[in-house]
Specification:
The chain is globular, with a radius of gyration of 17 Å. The protein has one domain. A four-stranded mixed sheet has the order 2-1-3-4, sandwiched between helices. It is of the alpha/beta class and 163 residues long. Helix 1 links the parallel strand 1 and strand 2. The protein starts with a strand and ends in a 6-residue tail after the last helix. It contains six helices and four strands; from the N terminus they run E-H-E-H-H-H-E-H-E-H.
Amino acid sequence: MNKTVLAYNFNPERLQQLRQICMILKTNCKAVEPEEFDDAVGFLAGIKDCPQAAVNPPETQGDNFFEALEEAAKKAGKDAEAVKNEAVQLLKQAAQKEMVFLCGFDMHLLNQFLAAVKRSKLKNIELKAMLTPNNRQWSGRHLLQEIASEHVYMKWFGKSAHK
């Protein structure tokens, strides 16, 4: 499998910086256009036998997110409704954030990539995901929502929710 970085929501300047990192690491970099957000990430990454049409998990996962958020808020002694309201706003913002989807990366290449991002002008890309057998047929839009949900949850509660 080719090593590929799918780049979502990057402006031209930051995309160029990402492409330079990918060139140094000898990986492909593909900017995903908004009209491709509903295509399967495996298809966009060039995975053989992966159809273009995405197959996303059932939508009940959004309910699970808010239930988990509410439970964690209660455990942390926070107002659950206020946490949910702010989370909705953060999720809306997160859907517009940059995301990289890494395909064909082993741990060594992942660590090189993350270190190169930190050293570069990019400094940070908040939303990151790697190709798995479970997510290869998800749409980029769905993946972005999933990663954004996890990011919001960890931002609110981090390690304290798992004690």
